[in-house]
Amino acid sequence: MANGGPEIEQLIQLLARLPGLGPRSARRAVLHLIKKKEQLMLPLSAALDRAVVAVKSCEVCGNVDTISPCSICSDARRGESGILIVVEDVADLWALERAGVGQVRYHVLGGVLSPLDGVGPDDLNLDGLIGRAHGYSEIVLAMNATVEGQTTAHYITDRLAGTGIKVTRLAHGVPVGGELDYLDEGTLSQALKARTEI
Amino acid sequence: MANGGPEIEQLIQLLARLPGLGPRSARRAVLHLIKKKEQLMLPLSAALDRAVVAVKSCEVCGNVDTISPCSICSDARRGESGILIVVEDVADLWALERAGVGQVRYHVLGGVLSPLDGVGPDDLNLDGLIGRAHGYSEIVLAMNATVEGQTTAHYITDRLAGTGIKVTRLAHGVPVGGELDYLDEGTLSQALKARTEI
Ligand SMILES: [Zn+2]
Ligand SMILES: [Zn+2]
C-alpha cells in the first residue's frame, strides 16, 4: 500500500529530493505538515505559490530576488564602495550578507570551473562578470577554498589582467577545503577585512 | 537584508519548522527549489495544493488518507483477519505497512499517556478504540518500547479486561527505549510474528 494515497506519496517523494532530506525524514515532514495543517501546511502551500510567481534571477548579478535588477543591484549606496564580490552560489552571497560585510555588490558565477565535470567558462556567468567589472574599483574573489574554486579565481584574475582593476581574494582565514556557507559569521567578516591583493 | 525578499524569507522560515530541517538546511532547500523551478518547485507547489485539499484523517482509525474511512478501513479483506494493531502515530502504521505485516487493521492513538506532559486518556483516541475493539478477535498493542508507551499499553489492557478479547503485544524484538519507526523492516516483521499474549 502507498502511504495514504497518491497525493501523500507524491508529496513525500518530492520532499525527499530536497538536500538534507531522505525518504524517512520526508515521511516525517509530511506527517508533521498534515498534523499542523492550519499553522504550517496551508501557509507553506501559500508561500510556495507566491514564491513560484515572484522569485526571479537578477539579470545583472545572478542573485535571486523578487525584482530584477535585484535589491542589491538597485541600491545606489552599494555601488559607491566600488567593491564587487564574486561568489560561486547565491548561498555564499547570503552567507556574506549575514556576516554584515557592508555596502558591496556581488556577482554570482553559478558554479566553478571543473573540467572533470564538464564545466567550462561558457557554463558560468563569467562574461557577465568581465562586462561589468570596469564599473568597480576592486573585485574580491570569494570562491570556496577548494581546487575548483581556486582554479576559477586564477582564471578570472587572468581575464582581468591589464584592465587596471584591483583584484583581491579573501584572507587565509577560510579553512583549506572548507566552504563559505559553513563558516561562522565572525570568520567570514575577518577574512574579508584581511583580504590580500593577488 | 532579508534573503532575496519577503517571499523567499517566509518560505525559508516555514521550511525551517519541518522536523529534521534547521535554518541553514531550509536556506539550502529553498535555493535548490529555485534552481530546480520546473522539475521540483512547481511540482512540489502543486502536490502541496492537492494534498491540502485531499488529505483527511480517517474517522474510524485515525490514519491519514484521501478518503474517510481510509483505504485500510474500507478493505473488507483486512477485517477478516480479526487483528487490530494499536499504534501511537501514523508514522508507526506506515512502518508496519512497509514491513508487510499482512491483512490487518490499525488504530492510531495519536500519542501516549504522559502525565508529566499533561496527556491523559481523554487526549488520545482511546474511546474510539474501546468502541471498535469488540469487532476484532485480537488487539495487538504496538506502542513504542518507552515508559509512556508501556504505560499506555497497560492502561488499554485494563480497559479491555473482561471483554474476552485477546490482547497481545509485539515480541521483545523491539529494542528497549527504541521507536518503531527507526527499526528495519525485518525486525518489525519478526516482532509481530513472535507477539505474546499479555
Ligand atoms: Zn543583482
Ligand atoms: Zn481508517
From TrEMBL, chains A, B:
Superkingdom, natural source: Bacteria
One Pfam family of this chain: RecR_HhH
Segments passing through the bilayer: none
Alphabetical GO biological process terms: DNA recombination; DNA repair
SMART domains: TOPRIM (SM00493)
CDD domains noted in UniProt: TOPRIM_recR (cd01025)
Residue span(s) of domain Toprim: 82-175
Cross-referenced InterPro entries: DNA_Rcmb_RecR (IPR000093), Rcmb_RecR (IPR023627), Rcmb_RecR_Znf (IPR015967), TOPRIM_dom (IPR006171), TOPRIM_RecR (IPR034137)
SUPFAM superfamilies in the record: Recombination protein RecR
Zinc finger (C4-type): 58-73
Keywords for this protein: DNA damage, DNA recombination, DNA repair, Metal-binding, Zinc, Zinc-finger
Molecular function as annotated in GO: DNA binding; zinc ion binding
Similarity remark: Belongs to the RecR family.
Function: May play a role in DNA repair. It seems to be involved in an RecBC-independent recombinational process of DNA repair. It may act with RecF and RecO.
Protein name: Recombination protein RecR
Organism: Devosia ureilytica
Organism ancestry: Bacteria, Pseudomonadati, Pseudomonadota, Alphaproteobacteria, Hyphomicrobiales
